[in-house]
Design goal:
By secondary structure, the chain is of the alpha+beta class. The chain has helices at 363-369, 384-387, 400-477, 483-524, 528-572; strands spanning 11-12, 28-33, 40-45, 49-55, 63-70, 75-80, 87-91, 96-99, 105-109, 121-127, 132-138, 146-151, 159-162, 179-184, 189-194, 201-206, 209-213, 234-240, 247-248, 256-257, 262-267, 272-276, 311-312. Among the domains are: 215-292 and 344-386, no CATH class; 436-498 and 543-572. A hairpin with a 5-residue loop joins strand 8 and strand 9 (105-109). Helix 3 (400-477) runs parallel beside helix 5 (528-572) and helix 4 (483-524) packs antiparallel against helix 5 (528-572).
C-alpha cells in the first residue's frame, strides 16, 4: 500500500480487496494487522465471521486464507500479542477468546462477577504482556464503560483489577462505545481514546500495578470543541514513531526532549489532530523508528474498476476568461514530504492549507499548550474560492443564482432525509417493542417448562423418600445373609439421587443457554427472524432434554416398581429367602 499527498492528480483505486464474509448483507466490524507479518491481518464481520488472510498485492492472487471461523457472537475488538503468535478477540456477549492465527481456540473467558454493565459486550481490548490484558466492557445503553485488567496465569484462576478512572463517558456523546489502546509498552504505558470522551487517557504500570495516570491540565491531550463549542470525539487513533526532530518544550528553548512518538487522532468534526507523546524520565528508551525513503517510481495504485474509471482526482476546469492554472512545480530532490504532502520545516511557511478546519476559539490555545501539532488548517480548504479544492486544483466559478438553487435543493434534500430517518427510527422502535413482547412470551414459556421439570424432580424425590424407610425396616427383619442384597437396593437409591442432581444441573445449563440467547437477540436487535431461529433451536434443545428426562423417569419408575414388588414378596415369605434380583437400566 502507499500513501498519497493531497495534490496527487492520478486515479486512486485499491491494490487489493478482501471479503470478510460470504454473506452479502454482512459488514466489516474491525480488523488488526499482525505485528509479526506485515502482510497478514485478522478481520471480523457483523455475521459473526472471523478470518485471517495474507494480502499479496504483488501476486496475481491478491490474498490467501490463513484461517476462518464463525463464532457464537459478532466480534467487536481484536488485539495481537506483541510477537504476533496469538491473538484475542472480544464479542457481543462479553467473552474474551484467545486464538492462534489459524483461529484455533486456545481458551475463552466470560466477564467477571464484578462487572456492573448489564448485558456487557467487549468494546475495547489490548494484549499488553504475556499474562495481562486490558478488557473494556460496555453496551449501547450504558453511559459509561467498565475497564479492567485481566490476568491469566498458568494453572491459576483468572484475576481482575478494575480501572475506574478509565470509564468516563461524556453526556454529549451519541456514538456506540469503543475504546482504542495505543501501546507504548517500552515505557510501560498505554494511550487510550474512547468514542465517548474527548480526552486521551494514559494507563501506566508502576510497582507491578497498572493504573490510570492523570497529567496536569497543561499537558493533557484533549480534543478541541467545534464551532458551536460542542465537544468532539475521536473516530480513530494511531501512533507514528518516525519523528526525527528534537522537541522544544519551553519558550526560551532551555528544556528539550528527544524525538517522541506522535499520536494522530481523527475527530468527529473532521479534524486530524497530532500530539507529541513525551516521557521526561531520565534514561527513557527511545521509541523512534527511522522512516524509509520512498522511491516515487515504485508507487502503484490498483486497476480502475470496470465502468467507473476509478477514483480519479483531476483538476477542475478553470473559470471562463481565467488563465489556465499552471501545473504544480516538481519538488526538488532535496525536499522531502510528509505522509500528507506537507514540506519539511524549511518550506513549511509556504505550505497551503489542506486538512480539516481550525479549532474553535479558546480550544486552540489549549491544544497548543498540549504540544498539539495540527497538521494543516482548513478554514481556507472549506472555502474553495479562496484556496482551491482539497487536492490543490482550482475550482470553477459558480454563478450566485446557481449557488442559491443548489443551497435550496440541498436544504430540501436534508429535510427529506431527516423525515425519512425519523420514519425509519419510529418503525425500528415499533419493531423493537413488538420483538420484546415476543421475547417475554418465549421467556414465560421457558419458565413454565422449567417449573414442570422441577415438579417432576420433586416427585422423584418423594419416591426416594418413601422407599428408604421400607428398605431400612426390611433390613432389620431379614437375616444377615440377605443384607448384601439390601445394600444393592440402597445403592440403587443413591444412583437415583445422583440422577436427580444431574437433572438439576441439566436444568441450570438449559436456563443459562436460553438466557444467553435472549440477551444476544435483545442486544443485537436482530428482530423477528432472529427470534424464529432461536425458537427453532430452543424447541430442538427442549424436546431433546425432555425426551432424555422422560426416559430416565420411566426407567426409574419401572425399577422402583420392581423393587416394591420384590420387597413385598420377601416380606410375605421371610422363612424362605430368595435371591433378590433387580433389573435397572439407567439412560445417562
Amino acid at each position: 500500500a502507499a500513501a498519497f499527498s493531497l495534490d496527487y492528480q492520478g486515479h486512486i483505486s485499491p491494490l487489493s480487496t478482501v471479503r470478510v464474509s460470504a454473506d452479502a448483507g454482512a459488514t466489516a466490524r474491525c480488523f488488526e494487522w499482525s505485528p509479526a507479518a506485515a502482510d497478514t491481518l485478522v478481520a471480523a464481520a457483523s455475521d459473526k465471521s472471523l478470518v485471517t488472510v495474507t494480502v499479496k498485492a504483488e501476486s496475481s492472487t491478491p490474498s490467501s486464507l490463513v484461517g476462518e471461523r464463525k463464532l457464537g457472537a459478532a466480534v467487536r475488538a481484536i488485539s495481537w500479542s506483541r510477537k504476533g503468535k496469538q491473538l484475542v478477540v472480544g464479542d457481543d456477549l462479553g467473552k474474551v477468546i484467545q486464538m492462534k492465527p489459524e483461529l484455533d481456540i486456545v481458551r475463552s473467558t466470560m466477564p467477571p462477577d464484578s462487572c456492573t454493565i448489564p448485558n456487557p459486550a467487549v468494546v475495547g481490548l489490548c494484549w499488553m504482556t504475556t499474562t495481562e490484558f486490558l478488557v473494556v466492557y460496555g453496551n449501547q445503553a450504558a453511559k459509561d464503560v467498565q475497564a479492567t485488567i485481566m490476568i491469566t496465569k498458568k494453572d491459576k484462576p483468572v484475576t481482575w483489577t478494575e480501572l475506574p478512572d478509565l470509564g468516563y463517558g461524556s453526556p454529549q456523546a451519541q456514538t456506540a462505545p469503543a475504546l482504542t489502546a495505543l501501546c507504548l509498552l517500552e515505557w510501560n504505558a498505554l494511550l487510550t481514546t474512547s468514542s465517548r470522551s474527548p480526552d486521551v487517557s494514559v494507563v501506566g504500570k508502576a510497582a507491578e500495578t497498572w493504573q490510570v495516570w492523570v497529567p496536569d491540565e497543561l499537558h493533557q491531550a484533549a480534543l478541541p470543541t467545534n464551532a458551536a463549542t460542542a465537544e468532539t470525539f475521536p473516530v480513530g487513533a494511531e501512533l507514528d514513531f518516525s519523528a526525527s526532530e528534537t522537541l522544544v518544550l519551553t519558550a526560551d528553548g532551555t528544556k528539550r526532549a528527544p524525538p517522541s512518538p506522535i499520536v494522530c487522532i481523527l475527530t468527529t468534526d473532521g479534524l486530524l489532530m497530532a500530539y507529541h507523546a513525551v516521557l521526561l524520565r531520565t534514561g527513557a528508551v527511545s521509541m523512534q523508528i527511522p522512516r524509509k525513503a520512498v522511491n516515487p517510481s515504485s508507487v502503484r495504485v490498483g486497476a480502475k474498476p470496470a465502468g467507473t474509471g476509478g477514483q480519479t482526482v483531476a483538476a477542475a476546469p478553470a473559470a471562463p476568461g481565467a488563465p489556465a492554472a499552471a501545473p504544480p512545480p516538481a519538488p526538488a530532490s532535496t525536499v522531502q514530504r510528509s505522509l500528507f504532502g506537507a514540506p519539511t520545516r524549511a518550506t513549511a511557511a509556504a505550505a497551503p492549507a489542506a486538512i480539516g478546519r481550525s479549532p474553535a476559539a479558546g480550544s486552540t490555545a489549549r491544544a497548543a499548550r498540549c504540544c498539539a501539532h495540527l497538521l494543516a488548517q482548513c478554514e481556507t480548504a472549506r472555502t474553495p474560492d479562496a484556496a482551491g479544492s482539497l487536492f490543490g486544483a482550482a475550482p470553477a466559478a459558480a454563478p450566485a443564482a446557481t449557488a442559491a438553487a443548489a443551497a435550496k435543493a440541498a436544504a430540501a434534500a436534508a429535510a427529506s432525509a431527516a423525515a425519512a430517518a425519523d420514519a425509519a427510527k419510529a418503525e425500528k422502535q415499533r419493531k423493537l417493542v413488538e420483538d420484546r413482547g415476543k421475547v417475554n412470551i418465549l421467556l414465560q414459556e421457558v419458565q413454565n417448562e422449567a417449573t414442570a421439570l422441577v415438579d417432576e424432580m420433586a416427585r422423584m424425590r418423594e419416591i426416594t423418600s418413601a422407599t428408604r424407610p421400607t428398605i431400612e425396616q426390611i433390613e432389620r427383619e431379614m437375616k444377615v445373609e440377605e443384607t448384601n442384597k439390601l445394600h444393592e437396593i440402597n445403592g440403587y437409591v443413591r444412583e437415583m439421587e445422583e440422577e436427580e442432581r444431574r437433572n438439576e444441573r441439566m436444568l441450570k445449563t438449559a436456563t443459562i443457554r436460553v438466557a444467553d440467547r435472549l440477551r444476544m437477540v435483545e442486544e443485537a436487535g436482530e428482530g423477528v427472524g432472529a427470534l424464529a431461529t432461536m425458537r427453532k433451536d430452543y424447541d430442538y434443545d427442549r424436546e431433546e432434554s425432555l425426551s432424555q428426562l422422560q426416559r430416565r423417569v420411566t426407567s426409574a419408575r419401572t425399577s422402583m416398581a420392581e423393587v416394591q414388588k420384590e420387597l413385598t414378596r420377601m416380606r410375605n415369605a421371610p422363612e424362605s429367602p430368595q435371591v433378590l434380583s433387580i433389573g435397572c437400566e439407567m439412560d445417562v
